[in-house]
Structures are given as C-alpha cells and as structure tokens.
Design the sequence.
C-alpha cells in the first residue's frame, strides 16, 4: 500500500495532470482554426463554434457538476467526467464534418464541467486548510496559468509538426492514465447530510447559465442590440432569477446561501470573472495579430508564447510561496497590476511590429500577472468553505472564469471587428486596420483588468483567509472511503 502522506501528493500530481489537460483545451484550438477550417470546409460563421461549443457546456454545467460531485461522490464524478472527456477528445480528432467536430467539442466541455470541480474539491478535502492546502492550491493555480499559455504554444507546434487532429489525440493517453490511477490514488468522499437532489434548482441554474453563455457567444453574430440577443439575455435573467427564488424556498438547496457570506469567496469569484474576461480574449487577439498582421506560421505563433509559458511556471511557484508568507490580497493586487501593465503595453502593437519590440516585454509582464493572479484566486475561492461544500465552491470559481472568458471573447472581438471595419471604410490599409482593431480590444481588456485591481483591494479580506474550524456536529456528515 502507498503510504498516506506519499499517496496524498501523488493524488495531487494526478489531479494537476488532468486539470492541465482540461485547461489546455480551452486555448489549444486557437492557432489550429485556419487548418480546421480548410480541412473540414467550415463556414466562417460556424468556425467560432469550435471554441464556443466547449465554453458553452463547460461554463453552463460547472455549477451542477460541482454539486453532483458533493452529493454522489467526488471520485466517481471525476472518473465519469474523464471518460466523457477522453472519448470526446478521440471523437474530435476523428471528426469528418462541421457538425461532428462541434458536437464532440460540446461533449469535451461537458466532461470538463464534471472533472474540474470534482478534482478541485478532492484537493480541498485531501489537504488541511492552511499552509499545506495553500501549497496544493498554489500548484493548482500554477497549472491554470501555465495551461492557458501552453495551449496556444502546443496548438501551434502540434498543428504544424503533425496535424490539427493531434491537438485532440494528445488528450487520449493522459485520460487513459488518469482512469487507471484514479482508483489507486483518490479517496472517495461526499456530503452525506443531503438525502435529496434539488432537481428544479439544477434545471433552472443550468438552463440559465447555458442560455447566458450562448447569448454571450452569439452576440457578435446576432448583434448586441438585436432582438435575438436581447431575448436570450432576458431568458437567462428570468431563469437565474427563478433559480434564486426557488433556492430561498427549498429545504435542501443546490446552492446554500451560506457560501456567499464569506466576502473573500465572493471577491475571488468576481476576480476570476475579470481574469477570464481579460486573458481568454487577450490570447485570441495576440494569436490573430501574429498570424494576420505579422504573418507568423502556426509553429512560429506557438513558439512565440514560450516567453510566457516558461516564466509563468516560475512566477506561479513564487506566488504560492508569497501567499503563504504575506497573504492572498497583496499577491493578487500585484498580479492584477502586472496583468494590466502587460495589456497596456499591447495597446501599442504596430502593423510592422517585431517580436522583441511589440510582444516580448508584454509577454513577460503577462507571465507575472498570470502566476500572481491564478494562485491567490484559487486559494481565496475556497477560503473558509466547509468540506461538504467544496465541490460547489470549486464549481463557482471555475464557472466564473469560463463565463468571463466567453464574455471577453465575444465583447472584445466585437470591439476589434467594429474598429477594423471602420478603419477599412475610412481607407486604411488592411494590416493597419486590423492593428487598429487589436489595439482597441487591448484597451478594453486593460479597463477590465484595472477593475480587477480594485476588486482585489476592496473586496478581498485577510480575515476570511485564516483557517476556519469545522463545526463538530458536521464531522459525521462527511463519509470517506
């Protein structure tokens, strides 16, 4: 048998490896989109669904996935999610048409929505709150930061060296290894106090979130002020309002109101939303700038991100160390400030830009921002949360980041597209017009990131980050196998 202490850290390695795969697939398709469009004859309007289908089901089902993990077993849900994700990855690589790839990407998102909250809640219930858990969550945050960058890096390398199919096939061996190791390393746990499942609440919140993410991803196609977009946002608002009303009435709610009493948890989710909004859109805009304006190949575009990927590992490790020594708040403020500075630098990209002059300094600042933001947000989002609600809290923070990402891509892409169209209409040459659009998008992302600094300063509290003792009566409620 594996010694308990060693098994705990091996379990963490497994969870981090699987989560890295999930985060990777958010960004890995960006560089490969032109190749996918050519091979599968994608229409321009449907191409965005290679990204949006994943975001739609990932963001929409995260909250439900987290609560299901708490109720029926975290390891069980983790394994089910891994089966769905691995199978969908294989189907994505084997796709023969637009519809086949979009459907497989949606299944990937559903698998990810089960894996991520289950994995994070297993981590939370495995490690005691304080220095030990901070170290584990620091590593988790580091994987989030590194995975976001490694996606665009590996996407370019795999697409050009092999083919776009391999950005999906690479997940299969990781998934199989995870399925083999999960029964050996992961302990089953659940919230045994709840005997019934809040089905109406699950239907309302999942329907509301899926409708919201769909509205955000389709707003550019329909127009932000079109009847279809307004109707979708109205439907999402009605469903989510009905969910809140229902949760106040039911005896065993899907989302207990008590989880929102910790202001730092709320602040972490707002910061996660802001981080997702800025980062997802930033990587898409930078990828398009390198390929459409600087005419980088897929391989060169991927390799350009080495500066971020390589240094983000160091800053994530340092961020985890500093969180333990000086606390979450100052590290998060520093991270959001560095992120804002990097985005400010990218507002100056030029039509005849160079890697050293227009990209590298910004990449190095963004690496600091990623490492110093993902780590404290991961820790703050679970600060003081009871083990029984670990899956719920995990679902909330990941949902915040995914919805932020969907919103950022839709809103900032609209800014870039509109600005580019106006520039072309005024007689500006294409390269300069595209650059104008990217600059405008980076200005918008900078404004969002600055709001993140304010949230870190005002909302996050040091007092919520001290270890919180469990109520004695709740101890029997957690069953562990």
Sequence:
């Amino acid at each position: 048998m594996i010694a308990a202490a060693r098994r705990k850290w091996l379990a963490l390695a497994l969870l981090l490896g699987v989560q890295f795969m999930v985060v990777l697939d958010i960004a890995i398709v960006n560089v490969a989109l032109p190749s996918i469009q050519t091979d599968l004859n994608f229409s321009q309007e449907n191409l965005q669904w290679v990204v949006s289908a994943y975001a739609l089901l990932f963001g929409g089902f995260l909250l439900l996935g987290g609560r299901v993990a708490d109720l029926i077993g975290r390891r069980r849900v983790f394994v089910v999610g891994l089966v769905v994700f691995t199978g969908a990855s294989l189907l994505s690589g084997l796709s023969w048409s637009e519809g086949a790839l979009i459907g497989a990407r949606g299944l990937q998102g559903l698998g990810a929505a089960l894996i991520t909250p289950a994995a994070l809640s297993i981590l939370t219930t495995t490690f005691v709150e304080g220095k030990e858990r901070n170290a584990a969550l620091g590593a988790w945050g580091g994987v989030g930061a590194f995975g976001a960058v490694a996606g665009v890096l590996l996407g370019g390398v795999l697409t050009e060296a092999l083919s776009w199919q391999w950005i999906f096939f690479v997940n299969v061996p990781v998934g199989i290894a995870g399925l083999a190791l999960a029964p050996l390393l992961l302990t089953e746990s659940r919230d045994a106090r709840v005997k019934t499942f809040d089905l109406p609440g699950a239907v309302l919140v999942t329907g509301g979130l899926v409708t919201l993410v769909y509205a955000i991803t389709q707003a550019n196609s329909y127009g932000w002020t079109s009847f279809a977009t307004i109707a979708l946002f109205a439907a999402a608002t009605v469903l989510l309002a009905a969910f809140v009303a229902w949760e106040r009435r039911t005896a065993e709610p899907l989302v207990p109101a008590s989880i929102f009493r910790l202001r730092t948890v709320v602040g972490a989710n707002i910061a996660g939303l802001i981080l997702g909004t800025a980062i997802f859109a930033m990587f898409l805009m930078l990828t398009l700038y390198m390929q459409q304006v600087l005419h980088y190949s897929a391989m060169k575009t991927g390799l350009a991100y080495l500066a971020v990927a390589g240094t983000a590992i160091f800053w994530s490790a340092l961020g985890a160390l500093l969180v333990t020594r000086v606390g979450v708040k100052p590290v998060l403020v520093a991270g959001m400030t560095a992120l804002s500075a990097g985005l400010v630098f990218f507002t100056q990209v030029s039509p005849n830009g160079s890697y050293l002059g227009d990209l590298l300094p910004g990449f190095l600042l963004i690496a600091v921002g990623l490492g110093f933001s993902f780590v404290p947000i991961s820790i703050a989002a679970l600060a003081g949360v009871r083990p029984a609600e670990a899956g719920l809290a995990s679902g909330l923070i990941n949902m915040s980041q995914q919805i932020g990402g969907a919103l950022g891509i839709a809103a900032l892409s609209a800014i870039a597209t509109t600005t580019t169209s106006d520039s072309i209409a005024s007689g500006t040459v294409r390269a300069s017009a595209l650059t104008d659009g990217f600059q405008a998008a980076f200005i918008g992302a900078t404004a969002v990131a600055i709001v993140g600094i304010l949230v870190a300063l005002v909302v996050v509290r040091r007092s919520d980050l001290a270890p919180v003792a469990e109520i004695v009566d709740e101890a029997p409620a957690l069953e562990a196998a």
Remarks:
- The beta strands are 189-191, 478-480.
